[in-house]
Design goal:
By secondary structure, this protein is of the alpha/beta class. The chain contains eleven helices and 22 strands. The chain is globular and about 65 Å long. The chain binds flavin-adenine dinucleotide (FAD).
């Protein structure tokens, strides 16, 4: 009998979060480990896999197809627990999950922490109370309801100058042409792009009629707008905070070693530097690339880190050699509404190259990447021999998915 009361002899793997990193990691582990040897439990707050990189489109009014995790994991042997992770005790190897009034402790032998991130308010007063954001589905739907309330001439202020802010401002401007959209950034809009990419970006903003204020830092958000540190004011009916992401405080409270930004400190294998039974991937992991820099929070990083973490977990359990998987970016793809985009190529130092793909071809490429990502998430057992698929689906080996 284990400390949490379970009697299974199988190695218990708990995957926290079923986003880009967690859902694909769970599927990959189910595909490569024998269901008689491991019990994989995935805990996720929502019953669906949420295409987070399209939440700005959800906010602007697009309807996306639903991807229920129970369906995605059907036949994999993965046990799904729809509940909120409220605490992790890395010393006792337990995770506390809450589902309404009910709380439960889940024990693990190996933990993969992939709870993603939420917005970083950067300590700016009023963000939590008055700003909207697109970092999670409930928040994106709240913004959509607000945009629906605004009539022609309504004003939207997007704060931030990076990918999420750019995609959000252009998507809202394109799908709601009656609204007046303004973007405020403390830096230079698209300053990191190559010259052609940046020119293309600025032309797109012109075409959409989005007003841009660079080198302007917002110091306070109010119900009817925002105030910059230099005292200038921006009236807005909806202020959208897109100035960066921060990890949930659960990681830091768990006893795991974390970096200054709260991300879990991991080695090259994505293993926690303080607790070797714990791995982290995606936005929650502070993974260091080959040049000593932390990987940015992005879907691509979630892919890289989940590949490395799952390879290491499989290596630990099977004794197989653990390969070093790549952590190198080829480029960044930025959507500018439905029909325009920029794919900016980067070099090994993550600096923009002169080359970028722009316009329709880049938009088609982005759409292809989005479709491919979802296809992969929806087919976690792709490549698994039929006999193993059947084995994984046997009820005595694999408890059915439970919705909380
Ligand atoms: C609008 C928007 C556009 C973006 N566009 C791009 C882009 O074009 N390209 C790119 O590379 N990146 C983009 N990103 C960033 C990208 O979405 C993230 O880096 C990526 O989702 C990280 O993957 P993850 O698996 O770590 O986290 P997530 O995908 O966020 O998954 C985390 C999962 O954990 C669950 N969870 C969180 N807290 C709890 C809890 N307490 N209990 C239980 N479950 C919990 C969540 O419900 C979610 O399912 C974008 C982000 C946003 C918001």
């Amino acid at each position: 009998m284990r400390t949490d009361g379970s009697t299974t002899e199988r190695h218990r793997i708990a995957v926290l979060g079923a986003g880009y990193a967690g859902a694909s990691a769970a599927g990959y582990l189910a595909r490569h480990l024998h269901p008689g040897d491991v019990e994989i439990t995935v805990v996720n707050a929502e019953p669906d896999f949420v295409e987070r990189i399209r939440l700005h489109q959800v906010a602007a009014g697009r309807q996306l197809r639903r991807h229920t995790l129970a369906e995605m994991f059907a036949g994999t042997g993965i046990r799904l627990r729809v509940a909120r992770v409220v605490a992790v005790d890395a010393w006792q190897r337990t995770v506390t999950v809450a589902d309404g009034e009910h709380t439960e402790a889940i024990g693990y032998d190996t933990l993969l922490y992939t709870l993603g991130s939420t917005i970083a308010d950067l300590g700016v007063p009023g963000v939590g109370e008055h700003a909207f954001h697109v970092a999670g589905r409930p928040a994106a739907l709240r913004l959509r309801r607000r945009l629906d309330e605004l009539g022609a001439g309504g004003t939207v202020l997007v704060v931030g100058g990076n990918l999420t802010a750019i995609e959000t401002a252009t998507e809202i401007a394109e799908s709601r042409p009656g609204l007046r959209v303004t973007l405020v950034t403390s830096g230079e809009l698209g300053g990191w792009l190559g010259p052609k990419g940046r020119r293309h970006l600025l032309r797109a903003f012109d075409r959409f009629g989005i007003a841009v204020h660079e080198h302007t830092t917002i110091g306070r958000v109010e119900p009817t707008g925002a105030v910059a540190a230099d005292g200038s004011t921006f009236a807005s009916d909806a202020t959208v905070w897109a100035a960066g992401f921060a990890v949930h405080p659960i990681a830091a409270a768990s006893g795991l070693a974390v970096g200054d930004d709260g991300r879990i400190a991991v080695d090259r294998m994505m293993r926690s530097v303080s607790h070797p039974q714990v791995y982290a991937a995606g936005d929650s992991a502070c993974a260091i690339d080959g040049h000593g820099r932390p990987l940015p929070m992005s879907c691509a990083s979630a892919g890289f880190t989940r590949m490395q973490a799952t390879a290491a977990i499989i290596g630990d359990l099977t004794g197989r050699r653990i390969p070093e998987t790549s952590l190198s970016y080829l480029g960044n793809c930025i959507g500018l509404g439905d029909r325009d985009a920029i794919f900016q190529a980067v070099d090994g130092d993550a600096r923009s190259r002169a080359w970028s793909l722009r316009g329709r071809p880049a938009a088609r490429f982005k759409a292809f990447v989005l479709r491919g990502t979802v296809w992969n998430m929806r087919h976690p057992t792709y490549g698994l021999p039929t006999r193993r698929r059947r084995l994984a689906a046997e009820p005595h080996r694999a408890p059915a998915a439970v919705a909380g």
